[in-house]
């Protein structure tokens, strides 16, 4: 293999990289996002500087069904994100993510620094209830439920799209062969080409169970603020370095 061939690879392994080159288009992507209040001290503990917490100690627990992701196939995810601020811009920091498909786990960690681990999330309509579950190592660690399509947001599709277009941030930490950090940075990105096909809000409940390797319950639920159900097409582009811990 020539050196120029090596430099053309999109990732590992060289015999057949785990993912193609981006950007990545998603069709009929479905979200259930449950927003809740937690303890302010815990927000600060889980939010890396120089990101700053908002006045309200909010957390978003999301289930995402992705039936058609270019290069990744069909899979489901569950994530905890923390609304925050950087240089007066409001962002969303991804604190934990769990997927049931190896290719996007690898790509997400290697390219954007998503905090992804392999697990078994589900998002489905159970009679009159939109239901999300997360099972890790055989144990149910999260369950969210939302009334199914009770309150339409058809008159505010732009507002629903704005929720998805918000800048998101990951902590990308990749060690070198000596075990020391080789990449340690905050990576920012924004979803683009967003087409919202349906949007609803309504009542929701969220249950989190303590688990050492899927610690969603480390940010416990104090009060449910609200929930959104979105169906959309969108593109995940490459990102940018927001803050480099090793070179600043």
Structural commentary:
By secondary structure, the protein is mostly beta strands. The protein is built from four helices and 16 strands. The protein is 13% helix and 54% strand. It has helices spanning 3-7, 40-46, 102-112, 157-165, and strands spanning 24-37, 52-53, 58-69, 73-86, 89-99, 116-118, 120-126, 129-136, 139-147, 151-152, 168-175, 181-189, 192-202, 204-208, 223-236, 240-244. The strands form two sheets. Strands 1, 2, 3, 4, 5, 6, 10, 11, 12, 13, 15 and 16 form a twelve-stranded mixed β-sheet that branches. Strands 7-8-9-14 form a four-stranded antiparallel β-sheet, with no helix packed on it. Strand 4 and strand 5 form a beta hairpin.
Number of strands: 16
How would the global form be characterised? Answer: globular
* H/E element sequence: HEHEEEEHEEEEEHEEEEEE
Number of helices: 4
Distance between the termini: 37 Å
Mean pLDDT: 96
Question: What does this entry show, briefly?
Answer:
With 248 residues, this protein is mostly beta strands.
Helix and strand layout, with pairings?
Layout: H1 3-7, E1 24-37, H2 40-46, E2 52-53, E3 58-69, E4 73-86, E5 89-99, H3 102-112, E6 116-118, E7 120-126, E8 129-136, E9 139-147, E10 151-152, H4 157-165, E11 168-175, E12 181-189, E13 192-202, E14 204-208, E15 223-236, E16 240-244
Parallel strand pairs: 5-6, 5-11
Antiparallel strand pairs: 1-3, 1-15, 2-4, 3-4, 4-5, 7-8, 8-9, 9-14, 10-13, 11-12, 12-16, 13-15
């Amino acid at each position: 293999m020539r050196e120029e061939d090596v430099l053309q690879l999109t990732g590992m392994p060289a015999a057949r990289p785990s993912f193609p080159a981006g950007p990545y288009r998603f069709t009929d992507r479905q979200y259930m996002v449950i927003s809740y209040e937690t303890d302010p001290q815990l927000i600060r503990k889980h939010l890396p500087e120089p990101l700053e917490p908002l006045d309200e100690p909010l957390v978003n627990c999301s289930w995402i069904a992705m039936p058609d992701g270019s290069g990744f196939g069909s899979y489901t995810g569950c994530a905890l994100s923390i609304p925050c601020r950087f240089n007066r811009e409001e962002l969303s920091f991804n604190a934990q993510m769990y997927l049931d498909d190896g290719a996007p786990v690898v790509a997400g960690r290697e390219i954007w620094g998503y905090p992804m681990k392999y697990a078994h999330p589900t998002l489905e309509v159970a009679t009159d209830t939109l239901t999300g579950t997360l099972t890790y190592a055989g144990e149910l660690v999260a369950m969210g439920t939302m009334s199914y399509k009770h309150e339409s947001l058809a008159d505010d599709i732009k507002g629903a799209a704005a929720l998805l277009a918000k800048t998101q941030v990951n902590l990308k930490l990749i060690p070198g062969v000596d075990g020391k950090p080789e990449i340690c940075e905050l990576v920012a990105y924004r979803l683009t080409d967003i087409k919202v096909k349906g949007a609803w809000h309504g009542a929701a409940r969220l249950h989190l169970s303590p688990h050492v390797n899927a610690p969603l319950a480390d940010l416990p639920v104090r009060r449910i603020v609200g929930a959104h159900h979105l169906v959309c097409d969108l593109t995940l582009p490459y990102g940018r370095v927001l803050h480099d811990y090793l070179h600043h």
